[in-house]
Amino acid sequence: MRIFGVLTLLVVVAWSAPAVAQEAKDGKAQVKKKAPPVPKEIEADWKYLNSQAVKVQRASKKYAQRIEVETSVDEVVRKIGKSSPPSKAWKWVRDNIGYEPYGGLLRGARGALLARKANAVDQAALLSEIYVAQGHSVRFVSGDIYAKDAQTLLAEINGSATLISPQAAVGKDFTKTSYVAADQLRYQQPVTQHVWVEVKYKGQWMTADPVFATRFGATLGKGTDVREKLLDELGGTIRIRVRARLKDDQDKELVSVFGRIDKFSYQNIALEFEQSPMLKGQLQPVLSVAGQSKKGEVFPVKELDWLRVEFAVRRGRIEDRFAETLYKDGEPNSIFDYDQTYWGIALLPGWVPPDFLRITTARYVGASSQALADFTKNAAGGGTTANFDMALNETHRPYAFLISSMYATHLDRLTRELAYSMGVTPILHEPRVIMTGILRKDDSYDYRISARGNALEAMPKLGVPAAAASGFLSVHGRMAHQLEAELLHNLSGSKVISVDRLFVHAAKTKKRVTTIHQKNLSKARRLGLSKEVRGALENQVRNRGAVVLTPSGPVDLDGGKRAGWWALNPTTGNVEGSLGERMLSTIARKTGRTMQTRW
User: Fold this and answer.
1) Over the stretch 543-576, which tens digit does the pLDDT of each residue have?
2) Predicted structure pTM score
3) 384 Cβ contact list (under 8 Å, min separation 6)
4) CA spacing 20 to 30 A to 182: which of 30, 109, 277, 345?
5) Strand arrangement of the beta sheet that strand 138-144 belongs to
6) If DSSP states are collapsed to H, E and C, what string results for 167-183?
């Protein structure tokens, strides 16, 4: 009966985002191919799965033509022509990639294509890769833009939300006064520090600036430096490490990876734990990025105090650190009680379009179909249980990343709709980290998700009060947390303990809500929280400057005492829901044909 869990995930992905075709064709051929006899105990389930797999592949083929944008440099080169003059590539980037004001190299060429928006540095990175693919020599030029030109560009990308002329709303000088309320200087700096490309064509270096220039060969920038490669200091970095503390207070870094943000972006970063072949009762973490695996140090499960994944994201001089606790000694539902645990991490520095999810869905559905087809080939040869578990593991491997992509795709769509309705322009200036876990034990599935990173800012449009930006960020924070809970609910059919539910239940039971800030931090000790949860709350107040809104004590919810809070950034208005460093999670006790969602 465990095979129904595989079917559930296939159907979820098929309905959540229509897939594209190429990998699906292979999967369909494998489904049609006559397989060896299957053991009788799973024969009925297997036949049903095969029929549903055919439907998944048909859905993939149905939406094969819905990919409307280029998502790789090779696709752009094929569209504009490999031998086309460099002016054509410049025009394509200028017309297809919008401008977004943030600092440094963040999204890279692929991220700029996927997000369809990028700053000057990332647009230069994209244009240079197109030129190199066409066989041209390129170099990068950095320089400055006059403040007036930067203000004009901000005015063009942000526009007006008024029903009267902008001049009548703010005065005659449009560029001088239109963005005072939006903290104009905050966004002017990354615009004035400009980067563009020079391409060698017919023996001459030609300027290619898709941001400011109205024609190929021109720029408003005043060049001060010319280099063959972008400076490393323009790009941000991320370090991901798995750490453990043993009961003897010994701390261990089990495994880590480090690199530039744009190299990790939109990749399937995965974490698994393998049984040590030499030492009984010890596990070995395996951290993979885009299929390249790195094995870590083995550790004894029984000696663990806690196990967590730590992230350090550095952009310029600022480093944002946060962690996700996977295991804490004494807590119920230990991750090591499951037959299989798989964690997917998505690093998303830009907007996520539906086409990205369609493409990755097709790839992973094809991989899952292959794993199941391999199982049928081996099913008649003995060792059924081992083969079956292996097939399940191979089938589940991609889906943690897909769930993260599902969440981000829906969130970005809702973010744009919310911003439009509130008269603001959303800006993603930092990467988001979304971590998803799938844990299986027989027919039970535990799904976990957490989205971190203060990535979003907002500029009010002309004529819109500055308070709209703070209001947008507050509403967005609650919306993002609710979306995490809704996704888990649709995956499992079970209620999720979220901050939103916690506050609703606290209101029904007339439990008082209190505010914690840096001047009254001592109040946190009177909330009746555990040491770990209180430490997480105090960290957000003391180290991140947040103002916390929380019930005055743990809330009785779903058979236990729960704690949680909203953390408000008083500078930006950004709101983040927290359950005390714990990921949102839900357990699906019944999986099968009835658990099909159209989320």
Assistant:
1) 888 899 999 988 988 888 888 999 998 877 888 8
2) 0.83
3) 39
4) 109
5) 204-208, 193-201, 138-144, 222-227
6) HHHHCCCHHHHCCCCCC
